[in-house]
Specification:
The structure is a homodimer of 575-residue chains. By secondary structure, chain A is an alpha+beta fold. Helix content of chain A is 39%, strand content 14%. At the A-B interface, helix 5, helix 14 and helix 15 of A face helix 5, helix 14 and helix 15 of B.
Chain lengths: 575, 575
Amino acid sequence: MGKLLRVNTKEKTFGFEEVPEAYAGLGGRALTSKMILDEVPATCHPLGKANKLIFSPGLLTGSPAANSGRLSAGAKSPLTGGIKESNSGGYASQKLARLGIAALVLEDKPEEDEFSIIVINNDSVEVLPAGDLTNAGNYEVMEKLWQKYGKNVAVISIGQAGEQCLKGASMNQADLNGRPGRAHGRGGLGAVMGSKKIKAIVVDDKGAPRVEIKDPEAFKAANKRWVDMLKSHPVSGQGLPSYGTAVLVNLVNEAGAFPTKNFRSGRFEHAQDISGEKMAELIEQRGGVTTEGCHPGCVIKCSNVYHDKDGKYLTSGFEYETIWAFGAHTTIKELDDIAMLDRLCDDFGLDTIEMGVAIGIAMEGGMIPWGDGKAAIDLLSKVGDFAPEGKIIGNGSVFTGEALGVDRIPVVKKQALPAYDPRSCKGVGVTYATTPMGADHTAGYGVTANILSVGGTIDPCKKEGNIELSQNLQVATAAIDAAGLCLFIAFAILDDEDGVPTIVDMLNARYGLTLTPNDIVALGKSILNNEKEFNRKAGFTEIDDQLPEMFNETFPPHNTTWDFTLEELSETLKF
Amino acid sequence: MGKLLRVNTKEKTFGFEEVPEAYAGLGGRALTSKMILDEVPATCHPLGKANKLIFSPGLLTGSPAANSGRLSAGAKSPLTGGIKESNSGGYASQKLARLGIAALVLEDKPEEDEFSIIVINNDSVEVLPAGDLTNAGNYEVMEKLWQKYGKNVAVISIGQAGEQCLKGASMNQADLNGRPGRAHGRGGLGAVMGSKKIKAIVVDDKGAPRVEIKDPEAFKAANKRWVDMLKSHPVSGQGLPSYGTAVLVNLVNEAGAFPTKNFRSGRFEHAQDISGEKMAELIEQRGGVTTEGCHPGCVIKCSNVYHDKDGKYLTSGFEYETIWAFGAHTTIKELDDIAMLDRLCDDFGLDTIEMGVAIGIAMEGGMIPWGDGKAAIDLLSKVGDFAPEGKIIGNGSVFTGEALGVDRIPVVKKQALPAYDPRSCKGVGVTYATTPMGADHTAGYGVTANILSVGGTIDPCKKEGNIELSQNLQVATAAIDAAGLCLFIAFAILDDEDGVPTIVDMLNARYGLTLTPNDIVALGKSILNNEKEFNRKAGFTEIDDQLPEMFNETFPPHNTTWDFTLEELSETLKF
């Protein structure tokens, strides 16, 4: 295990400490969630000095294990009021791991208004004035920081949204080209960073040793099996590399679970116009990149670079959920408008799911017309202007709905539902309702067995089997997030019995341990129990583990409804 | 008992029904809270069709009992998410009682955008198009409705805030001059009325009989004792009639419990400029009215009419909490600016406490400068313009704080704390924390024994005795609200052992009952238990029964802190 690096954002001081015994064997989400439970008063104001913002690389991060470069960020969420873990690709996780930092903990908050940046390298930690980075968007921030510190540093930064402490604010990471295409998107953690007046974190691992592997031979052998497994699965080896995650547009639309016009139906008549196939065609015509990893060592490469019609760079990391949120949910059908909205989110530092859903709510409330991409772009631009409209939309779906008096707001724990309707994809619906994170598909991606026939087949429109599906996936996902692995490795491990044992072999070889697959399950459960415990102390009850009443409406084309009882749902995460 | 009048706001239909056996003996807050518990799903969206807006006159309302003309309004609150009862003076309650209406229940909600008005008289109930009343402020609405229906009708209406479904929206009642100086202020019930697209309710009792008094002689005798008691008490007989509720400015400031600059200290250096004495002086100079009742039969007459420096009408019903909220809390020291802010609240239909606190939060967040009355007037005016800034401020303190990233927000259950600091007036602090209503001084006015030496003396800066004080007052207040009595009768009944028996005598004479004072206590407790039960079903826990962390700060001049534990507070309403 490495060390904890604590930075006091008020005093501009830092200190290293040994990882306590109690945290041995924890990394990524396991460590952020445990530390938040232990150190953050559950009833504190998320933007107050008592909240902490914690970054932790996964247990495998920094090693050569394929797709192990995710970084967990955790805090009490300004959006949900509960615990939050949000992870992202980018460079930072592997560099922190190589620097021997098990967790970077931002504490306290300054009284003055000036922003700072934190620069971490192998010899020093500095808290420096942000200077002219203040009020800048992430594109400019990252460009300037690469200019100053070189292209080999990782950058985590906030845009204007985080500076304003908006609940939709993300923290963005420089991608492999120094653009803010990767994001700790969900839960408004950018607002926590903003409240602590940290504009950016620069991580430079120059001179740092490689991470130690206790049994290099065993590790190498396991990682080879691992890479083969990821590359040979049809989803992670073919679908995602070819079309990106937007391959799902046609699949989910066909399944009738593609929420359209604020969750009124499951099919969008213009789905073709915003599909992964269409996107890949445009990227190729215009000279973009269809296949790119979000961090070194990725073998799936679901990311991309999208150019505008003049062949100029427009956005990158353009994903299915983003396209859904700004597309079918709002009925905007112009992919270029959606790409511009994605770019604005990356630049201002905003969660694309929360913003897309909020734009739909703004349409529901009559603020802008349904399907009007230009009006949506104008509205979202107000966040960058620090204008009142931006403070409304940038605070997310519930806030926008409350500003406009809208009563159909698709959220759980105040976080917007993503791109799969819970009535016709009930496995993920159970996850939305019960995960401690607020509505989040990544917390237990039931789309696998519901729609993709991965890891078996469970009817997406019926209740049977979907509680168990969500439970198993939530436990597995928590462990995956602790390992620092990309969620998309799940396709392979669900279909290959050797998947989990291979991960266990890599962990054992990395640390010289003798873990079994059962230990991984136990780790996943303990993470969820810690998160539930924090939320309970923050005032959450089982009443918060359900969908809002709008999902009692019958949902075409399959005419499904949300029919789980509170009692049934409350069984999901009882271990 | 009278009848229930249900109006379906979607179908524009109505029906009368007998009051069910289970509701026998309930009126005012007792009836609204019981019906909401029974009929409104606790987890519904407050602006959705499942919420109901219920008006109920008190048990003594319509009788000649002095100060018995209050009207309770209840619903699930858009502001707190819990149950809400908010009562007001005005004409409506007595007229509804004479029409034999125990409760008026607004149900469902229309799909179209057009507003309606409800006109209730002795022969008919009509739901009519609001026409040119739509988008109008309460002053204009009331003037037009008096022009159309005559000066003998009661009017309850919403302004632009309620139309926009803002969480700070009040429902205003025409005062004795047809001006919207009386308000169901707290909890955003105007937004519920707005969600149901009801712009105004007109109540005409022409031709209705007097309410039946079973034993007129006994009633008359008890009421005489009652009037004497109210008139002979120094607070209700002298202080309030002379200076209005603003008599408290100097008293509470002197006690060091006058929250200044967003609860940073307990004394405001410009308290004299906004005191009741100063106000009375200006009113007399300018030709206003210092002493006016809020409903026929009031013998306390704490209300007033305030003219501007040119001697023209500016506002009425100008109260202590309003003056505090727009004054000391924001450090605005110009009484005329504060009066203008009060007028804007009455016109747009906004709770003055919530708005004053929100304006202070806007100052805390840098949106406008501290102490700048003109900037506050400009900002509040945006509500009337339907502008984005208005949607922020009009949604109250939490919303404004969230828009601006402010972490010092003085609320309980998302409702703003009123004009008495909980650290140096702990009796009312316990009420703020524990009442099911969200922070509300009227729910258990511990200022009595803490500062006014009414009903004994309990040290406002120490814990001892203040839990019991709050409990006793909360129980008594719930019963007072059920009777339809003005809260200010409490001064007399706390200091006169014959107070409660006199009320009991009036109830018995009115209905031919044999109640005892113990029955009144039992009624108060049952009301609170119903309200707590609704909140529990809505997801509230004991964690919601506390003050936010900002009250851990030491509070000058007495250097007090908020030092009750959750365990201590949880005892307050355990019966």
